[in-house]
């Protein structure tokens, strides 16, 4: 564990950021375990007073933080009289996805006011804010609502969930809506890629509805801050933000049945994903442990109530090639053949009970 910033010298001090001079210099502390080659990947322009951090999550977090701290200059800001300043960033740990790609970062940010005498006290003290942050950057999540091609109105709408191991939750079968990290793509581009990867659905970026944008209220005072128009699932200690997209598709009944239990995901990246279809009316219960699902369903219902969600498109999604050729062997027995068998067994059982009663 890195020592607190106050007990060691900073690795560098920022006096500028993105070409602008900082009112308060920011001390940067780097972990002792960071190899020279890794430091060069994080700061390719060498250590300077105006570094360009290559880790997007750190760069974006710092940019947002400085812009919002600058808003304290407004006389109407709640912290205008006693403003906070970002004085130091202690990069305590980093996690590399590959030898050249940084994945996660844990930092301790030092945000405090200048010393002042609090009411009822004699000595000047600073006010400070908790600054532990797990940096991982943005993700995207998709609420996929599908409906049989011959269904009308709201009938038989279902939501596609994924079931996969989530070790952070200690789970090997966590139920959630499809999601994935941003990896240099636009929000819609990343969402479209995840839909193809996890659900096997081909979508155009323009077909995706950003429900967070639809729900945003430009008249809200909080919108004046520089933050993402997205859902923040754990804002107490993590920078992750997740735009929530809606994808609506009409599928053949055979296609919907084929999706049930289908294995997807990138196995070479450790993904082991199984699809699960759940009636829309029960989706809130099935996804009750998934913050993404609950937020997406709440937005869907709220926006639909305001008439902002378009009707299910009339076009029917083309069936996958695997389904047409019958090469995918995971397919379950169709419901239309399973259900009559169950009814027949129940009827036969009842007939036996009646015969037994007549004998008695």
TrEMBL record:
This protein's record includes keyword Cell inner membrane: no
Basic and acidic residues bias spans? 321-332
Q: Does the keyword RNA-binding apply?
A: no
Provide the GO MF annotations for this entry: ADP-glucose pyrophosphohydrolase activity; ADP-ribose pyrophosphohydrolase activity
The record's region (Disordered) falls at 308-360
Q: Which UniProt keywords apply?
A: Hydrolase
**Which cofactors are named for this entry?**
Mg(2+)
**GO BP annotation list:** nucleoside phosphate metabolic process; ribose phosphate metabolic process
> Per its record, how is this protein called by name?
Uncharacterized protein
Species in which this protein is naturally found = Ophiobolus disseminans
